[in-house]
């Protein structure tokens, strides 16, 4: 399975915010959309970075309630990308190695969607269950 297949199954919707959006607004977007991260985009639509729930929590922990007025551009970090054709094992390795929970999926230089660690784990578990079933069937048939 590839990143593109994950997006086909879950959808390609990407929630974006303006770089000047305050963290309080972003926290509401994350809650209302039931997502863990938003993409921070420039006016021309280009990707500037990504901002996650963890980033909001860290800012509040560091600066208290005043952090809620801080704009996204001051808290966001660079987005880590993958290719739409990348397989699950590569996605899992990338996320583990770089200690990230979200990857922006790119194809032909354009953002296609976001995959989360939860998406990768879910689809990897489905792959393993299918492999187990096929092995059991093979052993039953061969035996």
Tell me about this structure.
With 143 residues, the chain is α/β, with parallel strands linked by helices. The protein has one domain (3-142): CBS-domain, CATH 3.10.580.10. Helix content is 47%, strand content 20%. The chain has five helices and six strands, in the order H-E-H-E-E-H-E-H-E-E-H. It has helices at residues 3-10, 23-33, 53-63, 88-98, 117-142; strands spanning 16-17, 37-41, 47-52, 81-83, 102-107, 110-116. It has a three-stranded mixed sheet. A three-stranded mixed sheet has the order 4-5-6. Strand 2 (37-41) and strand 3 (47-52) form a beta hairpin. Helix 4 (88-98) crosses helix 5 (117-142). The longest helix has 26 residues, at 117-142. The model has no long low-confidence stretch (mean pLDDT 93).
User: If strands are numbered along the chain, what order do they take across the biggest sheet?
Assistant: 1-2-3
Helical residue percent? Answer: 40-55%
Radius of gyration: 18 Å
Q: Determine the structural class based on helices, strands and strand pairing.
A: alpha/beta
Please report the first level of CATH classification, the CATH class: Alpha Beta
* Strand proportion: 15-25%
Domain count: 1
Compressed to H and E, one letter per element, the order equals HEHEEHEHEEH
**Quick one: CATH superfamily?**
CBS-domain
Which outline best applies? elongated
């Amino acid at each position: 399975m590839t990143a593109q297949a994950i997006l086909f199954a879950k959808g390609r919707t990407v929630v974006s915010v303006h770089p000047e959006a305050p963290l309080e607004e972003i926290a509401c977007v994350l809650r209302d959309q039931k997502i863990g991260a938003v993409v921070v985009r420039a006016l021309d639509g280009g990707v500037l970075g990504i901002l996650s729930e963890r980033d909001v929590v860290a800012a509040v922990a560091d600066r208290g309630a005043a952090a809620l007025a801080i704009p996204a551009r001051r808290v966001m970090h660079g987005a880590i990308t993958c290719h739409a054709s990348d397989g699950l094992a590569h996605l899992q390795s990338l996320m583990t190695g770089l200690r990230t929970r979200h990857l922006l999926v790119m194809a032909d230089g354009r953002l296609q969607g976001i995959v989360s660690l939860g998406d990768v784990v879910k689809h990897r578990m489905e792959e393993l269950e299918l492999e187990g079933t096929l092995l059991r069937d093979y052993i039953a048939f061969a035996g």
